[in-house]
From TrEMBL:
<keyword id="KW-0378">Hydrolase</keyword>
<dbReference type="InterPro" id="IPR033120">
    <property type="entry name" value="HOTDOG_ACOT"/>
</dbReference>
<dbReference type="InterPro" id="IPR029069">
    <property type="entry name" value="HotDog_dom_sf"/>
</dbReference>
<dbReference type="InterPro" id="IPR006683">
    <property type="entry name" value="Thioestr_dom"/>
</dbReference>
<dbReference type="InterPro" id="IPR040170">
    <property type="entry name" value="Cytosol_ACT"/>
</dbReference>
<protein>
    <recommendedName>
        <fullName>HotDog ACOT-type domain-containing protein</fullName>
    </recommendedName>
</protein>
<feature type="domain" description="HotDog ACOT-type">
    <location>
        <begin position="10"/>
        <end position="122"/>
    </location>
</feature>
<dbReference type="Pfam" id="PF03061">
    <property type="entry name" value="4HBT"/>
</dbReference>
<comment type="similarity">
    <text>Belongs to the acyl coenzyme A hydrolase family.</text>
</comment>
Length: 188
């Protein structure tokens, strides 16, 4: 029988720092959101794969709201931590801050939650991961919140599927209700 393993939150925490160079800018001169999303995916993978000690994939990403723009020349710091572990899935919480050296200003850019799933290298099917050894109340709070968000994600997915199914049955009716929407209908 395989031994049950638990790993601490600290053992897989990751900090990633990256300077925002001019090639990251969008047409408005600010850092492109996609650059930040890519760094978030990278740190989520590093954190989850360290906890799982194996290959993982990104199953879902919760909404990402950019609360402050990031300027070229700023230093972006991403903090990632495993909040919650199910059987094969892990919720990784990511906080992003940007720092303007010259003015000494640190801004919160965004926070989001990535669900990563550990896969068996051979079968490519979800595989169980180590549990989390919680060491203080803050880690317990994050675990409870992660569990709650997993429940909400499932409920949300079910609601979307139900709406989609209902819409499939009544698509022609819904298409007659586009009057007043911000779209032009095909002629004829
Ligand atoms: C994620 C994936 C492995 C799940 O496979 P699956 O056969 O649906 O797996 P299961 O239903 O057995 O679920 C396995 C775990 O994943 C979680 N999960 C599955 N789909 C999920 C989703 N969309 N969002 C969050 N968690 C999800 C389940 O809750 C479950 O967690 P648990 O084991 O901790 O209880 C599969 O959908 C996949 O390979 N997706 C593509 C991933 C990928 O390529 N990512 C990169 C995108 S560019």
């Amino acid at each position: 029988m395989s031994e049950v393993v638990f790993r601490t939150v600290k053992s897989s925490q990751v900090i990633l720092k990256e300077l925002m160079v001019p090639s990251y800018a969008n047409f408005g001169g600010k850092v492109h959101g996609g650059i930040i999303l890519s760094l978030m995916d990278k740190i989520a993978y590093t954190c989850a794969a360290t906890h799982a000690q194996g290959y993982c994939v990104t199953a879902s990403v919760d909404s990402v709201d950019f609360v402050n723009p990031v300027e070229v020349g700023e230093l972006l710091t991403l903090y990632a931590s495993v909040n919650y572990v199910g059987k094969s899935s892990m919720e990784v919480g990511i906080k992003v801050v940007s720092e303007d050296f010259k003015q000494g200003i640190v801004k919160h850019t965004n926070t989001s939650y990535f669900t990563m799933v550990a896969l068996d290298e051979e079968t490519r099917k979800p595989t169980p991961v180590a549990g989390l050894q919680l060491e203080d109340e803050e880690e317990m709070r994050r675990f409870v919140m992660g569990k709650l968000r997993k429940k909400l994600r499932r409920a949300h997915q079910k609601e979307i599927n139900d709406i989609r199914q209902a819409l499939d049955q009544d698509l022609s009716q819904a298409m007659t209700e586009l009057e007043g929407e911000n779209c032009l209908l095909p002629r004829g």
